[in-house]
Design brief:
The protein is an alpha/beta fold. Strands 1-3-2-4-5-6 form a six-stranded mixed sheet, sandwiched between helices. Helix 3 links the parallel strand 4 and strand 5. The chain is globular, with a radius of gyration of 16 Å. About 5% of the residues have low confidence.
Length: about 200
C-alpha cells in the first residue's frame, strides 16, 4: 500500500469536514500506468482534503473461488475487503482491455459481491484508456448491480489518456483536469451527504 502525501500541483478546494479516507484502485497492474498516475494526480490535487491509499495488491488476488467464501478467504482478499469497508469512499481508475473490464479488476470485485463492501459505498469510476467506451459501460453495469453509491453521477470517461497525462503525473489537458476535479468533488459531496443522513 502507498499513501499519497505529496506536493500540491494546483490550487486546493477546501472542505469543512476532516480529511476523508479514500481507497484508490487502479485497474492496471502495471507500475506507473496512466491510471496509476491519474490516481496519484488526484492525491496531489486533493492533498488537504483526502487521505488517498492506492491498492497495490491487485495482481496478487487469486481467481475468484466460491468454495473459499466460507471463511477461508485468502489474506489479500480479506485485506482488499477491509480497505473498502474502512474507507469513506473509493476511486477506481481503470483502462479498457479488449472492449471490456481488465480481468484482474473484475476478479477483485467479484470477491466482494457476496460480502457487500461496495453496497452504498460512495464510489467514483474513471475509465482512462485509448477509447474506453465499452469497458466503461461494462464496469458501470457491475457497480450498479453491487449498489455502489451514486455511481451514475460519479463516473468519467477519459479517452486518449496518454495524450492527457504526462509521465510526471501532471494532467496536461485542462478539460480533463477540470472533469477529474469535478467528479472527485462530487464524491466528497456524496460522502458528506451520506454522513449527514446517518
Amino acid at each position: 500500500m502507498r499513501r499519497r502525501k505529496t506536493r500540491n500541483s494546483f490550487p486546493q478546494l477546501k472542505f469543512m469536514n476532516p480529511r476523508k479516507k479514500i481507497f484508490g484502485i487502479s485497474g492496471s497492474t502495471r507500475q506507473q500506468s496512466s491510471n496509476q498516475l491519474l490516481l496519484q494526480a488526484i492525491g496531489d490535487f486533493f492533498a488537504t482534503d483526502i487521505d488517498l491509499e492506492i491498492f497495490d495488491g491487485l495482481a496478487s488476488i487469486p481467481a475468484f473461488d466460491p468454495d473459499q467464501l466460507n471463511g477461508n478467504d485468502p489474506a489479500v482478499v480479506k485485506l482488499f475487503r477491509e480497505k473498502i469497508a474502512g474507507a469513506d469512499g473509493v476511486i477506481i481508475c481503470t483502462p479498457e482491455y479488449a472492449h471490456g473490464v481488465p480481468g484482474s479488476l473484475k476478479n477483485a470485485i467479484d470477491w466482494t459481491v457476496g460480502s457487500g463492501e461496495f453496497s452504498h459505498k460512495p464510489t467514483v469510476l474513471i475509465t482512462a484508456s485509448t477509447d474506453g467506451r465499452f469497458g466503461h459501460q461494462a464496469m458501470l453495469d457491475t457497480l450498479r448491480v453491487i449498489e455502489a453509491e451514486n455511481i451514475d453521477q460519479l463516473e468519467l470517461l477519459v479517452s486518449f489518456i496518454k495524450t492527457k497525462i504526462g509521465g510526471d503525473g501532471k494532467i496536461r489537458d485542462e478539460k480533463t483536469r477540470d472533469e477529474v476535479i469535478a467528479v472527485v468533488t462530487a464524491l466528497l459531496a456524496t460522502i458528506r451527504s451520506a454522513s449527514d443522513n446517518v
